[in-house]
TrEMBL record:
It comes from marine metagenome. GO terms for biological process: DNA replication. GO terms for cellular component: cytosol. InterPro entries: DNA_helicase_DnaB-like_C, DNA_helicase_N/primase_C, P-loop_NTPase. SUPFAM superfamilies: P-loop containing nucleoside triphosphate hydrolases. Residues 76-253 form the SF4 helicase domain. This is SF4 helicase domain-containing protein. GO terms for molecular function: ATP binding; DNA helicase activity.
């Protein structure tokens, strides 16, 4: 059975390789970056399939010790296990952000979802010194950074836009800039990005930053999926499932 599976993978790789080679010889309307993304996507899909096939059945006896250790650790930390968000009441209710969890912040438009998310990003990256990845499908990187500096330095954002700041504001600004320079927040502003592309990028980030502690996507409804779905509800469900699989795979919230 293993040999048959391997032959199937070889055939898929040959088919993909031939298709990519044909496209590269006659690119027509496709750009180089688009072809690279397509290549990565197709290889990633095969790797994902292989990964699923490798999942084995686990005997409870083999993991019971880990569960016991986790419970003892929870007791020592008084029930707190996850990554702190910076909102103490929320952390008390949730025990922090748990590795492998998909957390969706829902709300009506202009209710502060992005602001809340970026406050959490800021706390995890600056106060906890943990690398964070942000996929911003709506807001440009520079605008996000200005918002974070405004929040962290407690500076009116309008002053950052027009530069009309007092000496106190400038001191806060310089302190904030140093804090962001000394920590790691990685922002990708690719519009209409797909879950597959996010998973591929996060895999690379996880290899480069093994202690990557949080991935934030703003926001889910601007993401797209390859292929056709019967309706947008099914697309959102597929996106959610894919992001949950990503959280579990790289073991970060």
């Amino acid at each position: 059975a293993k040999h048959v599976r391997e032959l199937s993978i070889y055939r898929q790789l040959i088919k993909i390789g031939k298709g990519l080679a044909d496209t590269a010889f006659q690119p027509k309307d496709i750009e180089v970056n688009e072809l690279l993304d397509l290549s990565e996507k197709k290889i990633f899909e095969i790797a994902e399939q292989v990964s699923r096939n490798k999942q084995e059945i686990t005997n409870v006896k083999d993991i019971i010790k880990d569960v016991v250790n986790r419970v003892h650790e929870m007791q020592e930390k008084k029930g707190f296990k996850g990554t702190e968000t910076g909102f103490s009441e929320l952390d008390k209710l949730t025990s922090g952000l748990q590795n492998g969890d998909l957390v969706i912040i829902a709300g009506r438009p202009s209710m502060g979802k992005t602001a809340l998310s970026m406050n959490i990003v800021e706390h995890v990256a600056i106060h906890n010194s943990i690398p964070v990845a942000v996929f911003s499908l709506e807001m440009p990187t520079e605008q996000l950074v200005i918002r974070m500096i405004s929040s962290f330095g407690r500076i009116d954002s309008s002053k950052l836009r027009d530069g009309n700041m007092s000496e106190v504001d400038w001191n806060s600004f310089n302190h904030s800039v140093r804090a962001f320079e000394e920590n790691t927040i990685l922002i990708d502003e690719t519009p209409s990005i797909t879950p597959t592309e996010i998973r591929a990028k996060c895999r690379r980030l996880k290899r480069k930053y093994p202690d990557l502690g949080l991935v934030m996507v703003d926001y889910l409804q601007l993401m797209t999926v390859h292929g056709k779905s019967e309706n947008r509800v099914q697309e959102i469900s597929e996106i959610s499932r894919s992001l949950k699989a990503l959280a579990k795979e790289i073991n970060v919230p």
